[in-house]
Amino acid sequence: MEIIYSETNEEAGRKAAVKGAELIRQTIITRGEAAIILATGASQFQMLNILVKEDVDWKKVTSFHLDEYIGLPATHPASFRKYLRERFADRVPLREFIYVNGDNDPAAECRRLNKIIRKFSVDVAFIGIGENGHIAFNDPPADFETDDPYIIVDLDDACRKQQLGEGWFPSLSDVPERAISMSVKQIMKSGAIICTVPDLRKADAVRKTLNEKISPEVPASVLRNHGSAWLYLDKDSESML
Description:
By secondary structure, the chain is of the alpha/beta class. It is about 30% helix and about 20% strand. The chain has helices at about 10-30, 45-50, 80-90, 105-115, 155-165, 185-190, 205-210, and strands at about 1-5, 35-40, 60-65, 65-70, 95-100, 125, 150-155, 180, 190-195, 230-235. Strands 1-10-9-6-2-3-5 form a 7-stranded parallel sheet, covered by helices on one side. It has a 3-stranded antiparallel sheet with strand order 4-8-7. The chain is globular and about 45 Å long.
């Protein structure tokens, strides 16, 4: 995993977006199309704002949604569908965006998504790392073994407190306890991974990701096993290295 340091959140996001767009363009030249994965959260604001401005033939790109809360309507301020529509899907002319519908029966929704994504080879995954070291909503101890692309997960207290701390919910009791998440194995199948992790809140998770043994207890540590992964940090998130 290659680590790219920046002074600011804005610079880290810009570098991540530029690299990701380059990889998408290369894939379109090679295969005529591309498939990507997009994450949400405060860590992705800057990256997405630059990515939508990049010179990419978006009509040849299919995008998959990384995760979504179960039972949260798409109109809720914290909905990841709402987030991605406003910050990405409504700003570029994609071939298609495959959303995770948290309003559907969770098991049926996983089956629907799994059937779709198995038809694709994902080229670039744009992800982050949670304060508890999760990737997507795979909280520790994460399942490194399941082959199902999308799974139902329980959110731990640290994950739910992060969502509250970022201002998405008025109280902890309002944060859902379950979600549909892309699995660790499915993320790792991506041809390339662009991982954008700014902010002091993520410093300890970054330290564990890079310095502790690869383990389900630190889900993001598995990224070190990927041959084409880039980790974009700012001066705050790298401060404990």
